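Quick board copy: two proteins, each given as sequence then tokens.
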Amino acid sequence: MAQDTVGAVLHMLLIYNCERPEPDDPAFPEALARVNAFAEECRRRGVFVSGHPLLGEDTASTVSVRDGKALVTDGPFAETHEHLGGVYVLDCDRDEALELAALCPLAAVGSIEVRPVAGVPGLDHRSS
């Protein structure tokens, strides 16, 4: 697992089956305020790494390479009833990641999968 010197581990909070209001929806400002308050709580705790909503699966493409040739298909790879709607990356231990997942307002309308990020020796994770 990706671990720092004090034992914290990067965790991804994968947000599934969450319908979020569009900006022109009257419910949008309140939903946005709740999500921003959650991100601020993560920042206050010093664990926030990043958070990103995803566009719908109708915007997805799946790439596979077979016999040296790239095959691109529209949509997600697997037919599933669960739709990945966004992610947060947090630098904390499992207990805190689970606690924060329960505090995430999106857990009330969908589900949050909490998964540690694997550390692979020699893999370059740098962003720049």
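And the next:
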Amino acid sequence: MELTHVRLLVDDYQACFYFYRDTLGFEVTWGDENSNYADFKFRGVTLGVFERRQMVEALGIVYVKNGSREDRAALIFKVDDVEKMYQEWKDKVTFITEPVEQKDWGIKVAHFRDPDGNLLEIYEQIM
């Protein structure tokens, strides 16, 4: 068995497509803004973004758009410099946290969400 990629199930597909392509700069390897599914490559990792309605219906469940949800997963990205990425992105994304050192973990982190509410973290090693 081989894990090939992570797929996010999203309610607002187009907004998420543009976010991962244009805001974060991920390369689109399959799909477009109208396909309701796209694969993105970023440093050797594939991230799939799929319209949640289609996945739910494929499972035989009636689709209901989520109003709010608890975080069940987070995408974690290692960067060279959290402060630098924070400054570059703060006008493009709404950060939940400012860069902060988590000394027990030996990292500096900052958190934000994609347009569908998925939690993302950037971090750098500080030890």
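Board note added afterward: DSSP finds three helices and eight strands in the chain.
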